[in-house]
Amino acid sequence: MYEVETITTRHAPAAARAALWSETVTTFQGAHHYDYPVPERFDATATRQRSDRFQLVTWHIEQGQRISRSSRQGLAEADDHHRLLLPLRGPAELRLGADEHRLTPTDGVLLASGGPFDLRLPPGSRGLVATLPHTAVGGRLGPGHHRLRLGRAPGRVLALMLTTLVDDRASLTRRGFDTVCGQAAELVGLVVGDRAAVPEQDLAAQVRLVVRRFAADPDLTGAAVAAHVGWSLRQVQAVLHREGTSPSALIRETRLALARDLLDRPGTITAVAAASGFHSIDAFEKAFRRRFGLSPSEYRRR
What is the pTM of this model? Predict the structure, then answer.
């Protein structure tokens, strides 16, 4: 499923314009508080492109507006997605807790789900909000929000991908929309870190280094490793494939090697599993027996 929907207040009765816009934003982005300087004169248009996985909303408002979300609203609307906010015309003033940001077409922000904020848009503002699943976003992103520098590569590439999706929305297919959104999501982690890519000849060695460093993190994934070294997940997969392995296999093997070392030291099996990056003791014991032919307890008693 891929669909494009446009809603405008232009042809609505003056008394209904603000209510229509509030309903539109709530439908597209969840519940917020809305302030209108002159509600009956509010003129705005929003277009939503969406598939089963991704959503991209663009806005254009003629009058200024303030949109905010309280902590209670944020908790009620929390989900497993990030929101990438990018002005396309005019600055936007964004307050996140004690932090205040002035956003421009070369300076966006990635918002975590559920947090409160206060957004002020000037007259004539245009911009976009991309909704990206956590699982699709590259990089090991910490909690909270992240500034996105979009005036240079790789940030400029990310901004170009998103604006091209907007410009070509009428001719896109679901597959095309999802593919480009997925590639944009992978780039987000790289833009957050804004780190230079590791040279290709050093890529395999650097990947192994990153995996060893973060193996104890149960949330470590191939996409996170790829973002750390500045390459896409597909490129990292191709390099490791030439060496007879994969990101997931490398992470698993590194965790098991770490666990085997820890079993030679004092500590419970449960503590060893947690310190080796396994989500549960059952997953650890199954993986360990499959790899070494012994349970962790049997290995320790050998």
Answer: 0.64
